[in-house]
Design brief:
- It contains ten helices and nine strands.
- Strand 8, helix 9 and strand 9 form a beta-alpha-beta unit.
- By secondary structure, the chain is an alpha/beta fold.
- Adenosine-5'-diphosphate binds next to helix 4 and helix 7.
Length: about 300
C-alpha cells in the first residue's frame, strides 16, 4: 500500500540521517585525538629556547589549533545529540562548584576590563542537586562567554533563582543577561540554527562557529527545559531557561552540612567600588554563611 511504502521511505531516510550523524560523531573523535597531540607538542615547544620570531609563530599556531579544537568539540557534541547518542549524567553535584568552575574558565578568557561580570545567586537554592553537572557547566560557559563576547561595555549578569521546592524537586531559573550589542528581530529567528550567526560579519568580528547556541538549546531540552532569548538590537540580551532538578538525599546533605559549619568561621572583606557588584558579592558571602564586611576603596580596606 501507499502508506507502507511511505513508511518504508521514511524509515530509510531516518536511518540515513542517523548514520550520517553517527559518522560525524565518530570522525570528530578521530580528529580530536591527533589535535590534542598537536596542542601538547606546541605547548612543549613553547617551553624551549625560542627566538622572538619563533615564539610568535608558535603562539599563533597555538591560537589556531585551540580554535580548531573548539570547533571540533562543538561538532562532536552537536552530532552526538543529533544522533541521539548523548546521554545525560545523573549524579549529585554542588551548584557552588559549578559556579566556581565557571568563574575559573571565564576569568581566563575575560580580558575586557570595561565589562563587569556579576554572579547573582539565590540563597534558597538547595546546595546539592542531581543532574548533569558538566553539561550544565557547558551551557553556562557557552551563554556567558557569548554574553562577554558581544558586550563591549557594561555588565554581564548570571542570575540563578530558586522558584520552588516541592516533593524533593527544585525549580531553578537561570538567566544570563548582558548590556551588549543585542540581537535584532530578524536575527533572532536564526540564531538557534546550525552554523548560523546573526550577521555574516559576525565570524570576522567576533569569531565563533555558530554551533554554541544550538548545543545549549539541545542540552537544555535534554534536561527537560526550554531555552528562551529576549533581546533587541543595541539593548543587550537575556538568555534564560528553567530546570526542574531532584534535590540530593540526606547522606550527601550531611557531608555538605559539615563543610558549611567550617565556613561559618570565615570573615570576608569585600572591596568593590561598583555598587551593584558589591551588593551581589556581599549577598553571596552572607548566603554562604560567612561574615561579610564591605568597603569601597583600597584605603578603607587597609584601614
Ligand atoms: P558563535 O560560536 O558564533 O557564538 P552561537 O551559536 O553561540 O555561535 O551564537 C550564534 C549567534 O548568535 C552569534 O554569532 C551572535 O550573532 C548571536 N548571539 C549569541 N549570543 C549573543 C549575545 N549575548 N548578544 C548578541 N548576540 C548574540
Amino acid at each position: 500500500t501507499l502508506e507502507a511504502s511511505l513508511r518504508k521511505a521514511k524509515d530509510e531516510a531516518d536511518a540515513a540521517s542517523a548514520s550520517k550523524s553517527n559518522f560525524l560523531a565518530n570522525m570528530s573523535h578521530e580528529i580530536r585525538t591527533p589535535m590534542n597531540a598537536v596542542l601538547g607538542m606546541l605547548h612543549l615547544v613553547m617551553r624551549t629556547n625560542l627566538s622572538s620570531q619563533q615564539n610568535d609563530y608558535i603562539s599563533k599556531a597555538q591560537i589556531a589549533a585551540k580554535s580548531l579544537l573548539n570547533l571540533i568539540n562543538d561538532i562532536l557534541d552537536f552530532s552526538k545529540v543529533d544522533a541521539g547518542k548523548l546521554e545525560l549524567e545523573y549524579a549529585p553535584f554542588e551548584i557552588e562548584e559549578v559556579l566556581f568552575e565557571l568563574s575559573t574558565v571565564l576569568s581566563g578568557s575575560n580580558s575586557n576590563s570595561n565589562v563587569e561580570l556579576i554572579f547573582d545567586i539565590d540563597k534558597g537554592i538547595p546546595p546539592c542537586l542531581i543532574g548533569d553537572k558538566m553539561r550544565l557547566l557547558q551551557i553556562l560557559i557557552n551563554l556567558s562567554s557569548n554574553a562577554l563576547k558581544f558586550t563591549l561595555e557594561g555588565r554581564v549578569t548570571l542570575e540563578i533563582k530558586c522558584l520552588a521546592v516541592d516533593k524533593g524537586m527544585a525549580r531553578i531559573a537561570i538567566a544570563v543577561k548582558d548590556t551588549g550589542i543585542g540581537i535584532s528581530v530578524e536575527q533572532m529567528q536564526h540564531i538557534f540554527d546550525v552554523f548560523s550567526q546573526a550577521e555574516s560579519s559576525t565570524a570576522r568580528r567576533f569569531g565563533g562557529s555558530g554551533l554554541g547556541l544550538v548545543i545549549c538549546r539541545r542540552f537544555v531540552e535534554l534536561m527537560k527545559g526550554e531555552l528562551f532569548v529576549e533581546s533587541a538590537l543595541g539593548e543587550g540580551s537575556c538568555f534564560h531557561f528553567t530546570l526542574e532538578l531532584p534535590i540530593a538525599k540526606a547522606d550527601q546533605k550531611k557531608q555538605l552540612a559539615k563543610s558549611q559549619v567550617k565556613r561559618r568561621s570565615v570573615r570576608i572583606l569585600v572591596v568593590d567600588s561598583n555598587e551593584s557588584s558589591q551588593a551581589v558579592s556581599i549577598r553571596m558571602v552572607r548566603t554562604l554563611g560567612w561574615h561579610g564586611v564591605k568597603t569601597e576603596t583600597v584605603p578603607q580596606a587597609l584601614a
